[in-house]
Amino acid sequence: MRRRGRTPQRADVTVRRASAGDAGRLTRLVRTSGAYEGPYAPMVEGYRVGPDYIEAHRVFVAADSGTGLVLGFYALLLDPPELDLMFVADSAQGLGVGRLLAAHLREEARSAGLTAVRIVSHPPAEGFYRSIGAEPVGTVRADPPAVMWDRPELLLRIG
Question: What is the DSSP secondary-structure string of 11-35?
Answer without folding.
Answer: TTEEEEE--GGGHHHHHHHHHT-GG
